[in-house]
Amino acid sequence: MQQLLGKEVAVVGGGPAGLLAAQRLAEAGCRVRLYEAQATVGRKFLVAGHGGFNLSNAEDAAPFAARYAARAPDFTGFLAHFSPTHLRAWATELGISTFVGTSGRVFPQAHHKPADLLRAWVAHLQALGVELHVRHRWLGFGPDGALHLRNEATGENTTVQPAATLLALGGASWAKTGSDGAWLPELERAGVPVVPFVPGNCGAGVAWSEFFRAKVGRQPLKNIALSCGGATVHGEIMLTDYGIEGTPVYALTPQLRAALATGVPALLHLHLKPDLSPAQLLDKLARRKPGKSVASFLGEALRLGSPVPTLLRELGPAAFPAAPAEAAALLSALPIPITGLRPLDEAISTAGGVAWEALDEHLMLRARPGTFVAGEMLDWEAPTGGYLLQGCFSTGAWAARGILRWLGNTP
Length: 411
Description:
Blueprint: E1 8-12, H1 16-27, E2 31-36, H2 43-47, E3 56-57, H3 61-66, H4 72-81, H5 84-93, E4 98-100, E5 105-108, H6 114-127, E6 131-134, E7 136-141, E8 147-151, E9 157-160, E10 164-167, H7 184-189, E11 194-200, E12 204-205, H8 210-216, E13 219-228, E14 231-239, E15 243-245, H9 247-251, H10 253-261, E16 266-271, H11 278-285, H12 294-302, H13 308-315, H14 324-332, E17 334-338, E18 340-341, E19 349-354, E20 371-373, H15 387-406
Parallel strand pairs: 1-2, 1-10, 2-6, 10-20
Antiparallel strand pairs: 3-5, 4-5, 7-8, 8-9, 11-19, 12-15, 12-18, 13-14, 13-16, 14-15, 16-17
């Protein structure tokens, strides 16, 4: 550790990846200066805590890593280095106790608010000697690894030349928190391969009729399953004026993007009674008596009340099938034609950013030795449920490890 004392590391970006990397580096004896363009650090971190602060997930290691799809091999290593167990221990050290919910999601105890965790974290960083420079915007690279920054409070431009740099500038969703992806052209000009941003974990558009919009408005469909591209996700969705949203829709965003990219209609298939076996569903449908209205029958036999009859009228055949097998097929795979995904700034997360071929195994830019990247700047995506924040924490910890190796101290 002695050889690191006095070596300065710049961390650009005050989200979870940058903050955790700064903590790890300071604990290893580095002098850390963190630069954040916003007036405070952790803006998006706090926004993610609205409606439940889902820090991570207690899922086993192999299925957890599989949530990162094509990047699962990389995240297997990142998660082993800083796992959900490590994250919970880290929170405990800050005085924030956590628990595992019935869905496997990890949350702080109810009496801990997101601001409590961030406040304790910032205090710990300051106690470690991390210098926090807010309202300092990264403008790009200078010669010999220098960083150009602008002090937004004074309008003054400055240049710093650290021994190593971590860029953790976020993706391109929720621009009001500072995560606007404006850095991407600058890296591209610096010769770093990048991938254009696309929305992840977002709602999907449906061309509802005016009748449907007026009659249904905004209503939930609970205990359903959605399928697309060979993947099926259970949960609850919300019918909205623009289309549909909710965890199953968000989880199928990659499949929808791929389908939309082909230029043919993208379809989600909605199973309205996934809790029933095919035989059970057929049995209930076979009991329909002649003359019974569709709405009354669905409500009494299958507990499918409003807005299901209106949805079937909107998306199904002109008349509800009389044959039980045809009715079962419709209720098990109602096709929902998707017209597109919601805009980037409405998405919970984004895919795209720094291409993986631009990085070595330590998350260092091949084109700029000594500069590392972590968090949502990297081209990865994961569903909601704790996987997004965990991915940011884990890549931040991994990049800090890489920086320490670069500086000559292999942890």
